[in-house]
Structures are given as C-alpha cells and as structure tokens.
Amino acid sequence: MGLNKKDLAGYFRSIGEKEYRANQIVKWIHQRGVSDFNSMTDLSLGLRKRLLEDCEIKAPEVIYERDSKDGTRKWVVSVGEGDLIEMVLIPEGKRATLCVSSQVGCAIDCSFCATGKQGFSRNLTLAEIIGQLWIAENSFGNSREKGERNITNVVMMGMGEPLHNFDPVVKAMELMLDDNAYGLSKRKVTLSTSGLVPQIDKLSKLTDVSLTISLHAPNDKLRNELVPVNKKYPIKDLLKSVKNYVDQCNDSRVTTFEYILIDRVNDSLELAGELADLLQDFPCKINLIPFNSFSDSTYKRPSGNRVKRFQEFLKLKGYVVTIRSTRGDDIMAACGQLVGKVNDRTGRKERKKKKELIKTKSI
Ligand code: SAH
Ligand code: SF4
Description:
binds iron/sulfur cluster; alpha/beta
C-alpha cells in the first residue's frame, strides 16, 4: 500500500522481475481490493511465494464505523501509537464522495476548526492515505472483484493540511487517477488547502487535480485571525499562485473558494462586497460553508437568513454561489468536526488548556 507504481517497478527490478508486474499488483490491490497474494492468479507460483515472504498488503485498522441518519458514514481508523484519524463517505444520488485525511491533527490551527484544536502528531504515510480509499471501496462488498467502482469523488478535506504532507498526498492522488487503480477523473479528485503558496506552485508542475482554496475572509486582517498561515502567505500572493495553477490546467477550469460563514465574524454584507471585489477577475465558484459547531468553540453558525442574504448578494454580483449542505453532524462527521485522537506533539493543546485555566482562576 505504501508503494506507488514507480516504487513497485523498482522493487520488481530489484528481484529480477519485469517492471510490468507493478501494473498487475496495482490492479490486484487497488482495482480489485485483494489483499492476499495467493489470489493473484496471473502471477507465477514462485513469484507469489516471494511476495508472501517479502511483503504484506495492509490497510490501517478500522476501530469503528458509524452511520448517520442522512446516510453519511464515518470510519475511525488507527494509525498506531494511539493516533486515530477519521474519514467520511457522503452518498448523494449517483455520487459517493469520500473525504480523506492527510495528517493526524493539523499544524495550521485555524480558529474555527476542531481538527486544528487537537494539535498535530504526524503526517500520514502513502499507505495510510490511499488505505482510506481502499477500506471505503472494499466496504461495498465484493463488487470490486467484478471491476465495479463505487466511490465517484475524493476530496482531500478530512483531517490535516494536505500540502503540508506533499509527497505522500501527490502519490496517493496519482493512484486515485490511475486507470489501473481507482480510475477517478482529475476533476473528481479535489485537494483543499488553507493556501500554502510554494506548495501550490510545486503542485502545478505535477498534477492538475481540482483545487479548492479555503479563503474564509476577503482581507488579510481578518484572514490572519481565522487562518494563521495567511500571515506567511497573504491573499494577494495566494491568488497569484492559484491563478498560475489554473492556467497550467489546459481546460476551462474554475477554482472553488470556500468561505465558512461564522455569525458576526465574517458574514456581513460589507465583507460580501469586499469578497466580490477581490475575486472579480477570477474564474471561480464560491462555496459557502455555514460553521459547524464543536464542543470548545465560541463561534456560532449564522441564521439561515444571514447565510441566504450573503449568498444572494454575491449572486447578484454574478458569482456562482453554493451553500454546502451539512451532512453527518449527528455523528460529528461534518466539515471541521473531525478530531480522531491526536497525540499532540506541538504542545499547543496543553498551552491552550493552561491559558483557559489561568483565565478561569483570574475570574
Ligand atoms: N486543511 C485543508 C483541508 C481540510 S479542512 C483546508 O483547510 O482546506 C476542509 C474544509 O473544512 C475547509 O474548507 C475548512 O475550512 C472547513 N472547516 C473547518 N472547520 C470547519 C467548521 N467548524 N465548520 C465548517 N467548515 C469547517
Ligand atoms: Fe488545518 Fe484545514 Fe482545519 Fe485549518 S481548516 S486547522 S488548515 S484542517
């Protein structure tokens, strides 16, 4: 699971086998969902024996699954040393979207995000990232052996900042797009980022999957507060880099900007106006995400009316504006609610707890 096609080709070369074996193995593992070398009937008995000695096919361990009343399913997955991550499957008519995690926790620490509040433990490996898709596809039963594919879309919007875990995420996306693996189209694999400019530039040379930018504010002052990485990569630089990314995708691609709506924080019509001005020359869609609450957050979700008027304002300015429907919040599976279990190695969680304690004592 931890090897892409190129790595596998290298392995087969090293044991004196032909490189095309890599293709066969990728098909068995990722297209058919097989985890037993003995079932790989187009490999010689000798090679199967060698593989059994050298390798194992192992997805991360599912601790439990939960189904929401709206059909959303969440898996909690162990990645060792007590770290748990979460992934979410969102069925919607003929579509089934898997929301995949890239890190245990997240170092960016956006003020509105439950994942960020957990601190950060480590990057996920390629096996742990692609393993999520493998587990979710296999949950549909043996339809895979017949070549059926069930998951139609993947969004890198689970726990973590995917561009902080660059190489494994890029390799995982390669497998998602590979016809011999998951065969998803580049428009149906979406990477969502808080806006790491150098990594977006690097990504533009390697892939052309769909890119979604978590903007959340139309000016640097407010964005610095909500998405701290903005202090390093301000909006102007971010938009320039995103434009460059879109230009290298040689099709008529539009970027999606995500804008979380938090009551009285970033949901005024004045800010909607600023947003409309900011993006006026950018071929884009705007996706509004009403804030999803979690236990230790002081933010609130705006009323339906406030969400609607923000949307209408932007629509009148000519934008395509969607409101993301909240799915799976009864099982804490909605955007920004994924917490897993993070052995925080940054000390952030402890520092925050201490601060809270001092505040309470002084009151
Ligand atoms: N780190 C990446 C991808 C994971 S977050 C990113 O930030 O883009 C996926 C999406 O969920 C982002 O748009 C993020 O802003 C949003 N999100 C985070 N916390 C949220 C919350 N409490 N309510 C609603 N959406 C949230
Ligand atoms: Fe990290 Fe994204 Fe959450 Fe921000 S919104 S803390 S970047 S996971």
